[in-house]
Amino acid sequence: MTTIYVVTHPQATHHTEGLVGDWYDSVLTDRGLRHAQQIAVELSRRLAARPESSVRLVSSDLIRARQTADAITEIFDLPVTLDERLREQHHGAAEGQPVGAHPYNPVPRTGDRMHFVSGPGMESRAVWAQRVYAAMTDIYHDPADTTIVVTHGGSLTYVIASWIGIPFEAADRVKFQASPGSLTVLHDDDINGDHVVAELNSTDHLL
Predict the structure, then answer these.
(1) How far apart are CA 126 and CA 89, in angstroms?
(2) Domain formed by 3-202, architecture
(3) d(CA 85, CA 65)
(4) In the prediction, which pLDDT does 34 show?
């Protein structure tokens, strides 16, 4: 059975400072660093039941995600594969600036939602989704029994959408809620080959 643990990075400075995050390289707060350690402990507890499984760790290359992955490596002694395709949506000139300081046009309720660009220099949902889908396709084809993926709250939507087989063109209205430091568990079914979402946005491990 293939299992994927998807971790969203915990609290970072852009959360507490009211800044647009996305590709802005904020760092984990003290609380975020504590939560990263708690995530690592929880993963260790879960994987102790499968000591024979091969484990791979893949992370977004942004600092706050790498810090989360680093906490995991301290327990698992695993190399980290950094993949910029797992980043959050790019918000162009607004990144690192106060929320609301730059023009933003919400995605329209009708029409071509996937290719709509909401602000200067922003990625469309199409570009964002395609790169996350591509990253996850590579992960699905990896021979590891267990993969830990460290990503961002927004990108979790497309991680799950790709897993359950939603065509990217049909993902224009999909949204899965994600909390900082959450854990989502995906696995395939040994009997029917179904792609299971076993847990979504769990935060029970955070103190």
Answers:
(1) 10
(2) 3-Layer(aba) Sandwich (3.40)
(3) 12
(4) 99
Quick one: which of 96, 76, 207 has its CA closest to 150?
A: 76
In sequence order, what are the beta bridge partners of 59? 82, 150
The pLDDT, as a whole number, for residue 101 is 83
| pTM given for the model | 0.95
The β-bridge relationship of strands 3-8 and 55-59 is unpaired
Confidence of residue 96 (pLDDT cuts 50, 70, 90): confident
Give CA–CA dist 64/150, Å, rounded. 10
Long-range contacts of 73-79, Cβ-Cβ distance < 8 Å, separation of 24 or more: 74/40, 75/40, 75/41, 75/43, 75/44, 76/40, 76/43, 76/44, 76/47
The set of long-range contacts for 119-123, using a CB threshold of 8 Å and a minimum separation of 24, is: 119/91, 119/92, 119/93, 119/94, 120/92, 120/93, 120/94, 121/90, 121/91, 121/92, 121/93, 122/89, 122/90, 122/91, 122/92, 122/94, 123/89, 123/90, 123/91, 123/92
> Using CA atoms, how far apart are residues 72 and 140, in angstroms rounded to an integer?
21
Supply 64's token pair: 């706050």
